[in-house]
Amino acid sequence: MHKERLKSRAVLEAHLDGLAACDPRLKSVIADCGEVPLRESTDGFEGMAKIVVGQQVSVAAASAIWGRFAGLMENVCAAEFLTHPEEKVRGAGLSASKFRTLCVVAEAEQSGELQFDQLVHLPPEEAIEQLTKLKGIGPWTAEIYLLFCLGHPDIFPAGDLALQKMVGHINGLEDVPKEKETRALTEIWSPYRGAASRLMWRYFAVLKDKEGIVL
Predict the structure, then answer these.
(1) Buried b or exposed e, range 141-167, using 16+ CB within 10 angstroms
(2) CATH architecture type of domain 44-150
(3) pLDDT in tens, 1-49
(4) In CATH, what number does 9-40+155-211 get?
(5) Which of 152, 147, 181 is closest to 164 using CA atoms?
(6) 162 and 170 in contact (C-beta within 8 Å)?
(7) Is the terminal CB of the chain with fewer CB neighbours within 10 Å at N or C?
(8) pLDDT value of position 1
(9) SS3 per-residue string spanning 35-103
(10) Rounded CA separation 124/73 (Å)
(11) Residue 75: C-alpha distances to residues 45, 78, 81, 204 (Å)
(12) Is pTM beyond 0.90 here?
């Protein structure tokens, strides 16, 4: 199994080659997609905060809110975040629930309950379990953290609707598969499911841009 973290273009390209070998159906998909974005992100509290801030809002809105949020601090870290009152943080555009989630994450890190630097050394199931113990952090958020902040090579966020649609499309299904079925259908892509996730998001964007494609 390839253990390189997906933290460079060279590793991503190598994993896409491995993916095509696992599933020859994806050769044409890779060709159609051109350059697949790496989407590498910072780890630790800052990386998790960026994921939480960006949930359920448009890319443009997430970018604007993040800019205001990060601008409140010299360093985006748990200790500094906790020094700011709720009204000041929410004034950057965060909802009450997102503020509460970040408080839980920051307090867990400060108390030692959550050790971000240890997550990379854990099996993904254990890392996800540790993160989802925190109120407000669900499986999708935990998987996105492992995928982009840690560069885990074999994570596929099967609860993501765009990914479900693309897995259904690749497999010629009439109905969009649910999370459990999506996980089962993507086992063939292990140990390259991190590259597969990036490829499917890119393919979703490509098909959306093509006239006449309805997803």
Answers:
(1) bbbbbbbbbbbbbbbbbbbbeebbbbb
(2) Orthogonal Bundle (1.10)
(3) 446 899 999 999 999 999 999 999 999 999 999 999 999 999 999 999 9
(4) 1.10.1670.40
(5) 181
(6) no
(7) N
(8) 40
(9) CCCCCCCCCHHHHHHHHHHHCCCCHHHHHHHHHHHHCCCCCCCHHHHCCCCHHHHHCCCCCHHHHHHHH
(10) 31
(11) 10, 9, 9, 35
(12) yes
Query: Nearest-CA neighbor of 199 among 150, 147, 159?
Result: 147
Q: How far apart are CA 11 and CA 130, in angstroms?
A: 27
What is the largest distance, in Å, between two alpha-carbon atoms of the chain?
53
Closest by Cα among 66, 131, 60 to 101: 131
Nearest to 56 by CA among 108, 97, 6: 97
Q: Do domains 9-40+155-211 and 44-150 have the same CATH topology?
A: no
Side chain identity at residue 59, one-letter code: V
Helix H, strand E, coil C: the string for 164-191 is HHHHHHHCCCCCCCCHHHHHHHCHHHCC
Instruction: Sketch the domain layout of the chain as residue ranges.
Output: 9-40+155-211, 44-150
How many Å separate Cα 42 from the centre of its chain?
12
Tokens of 177: 């598969």
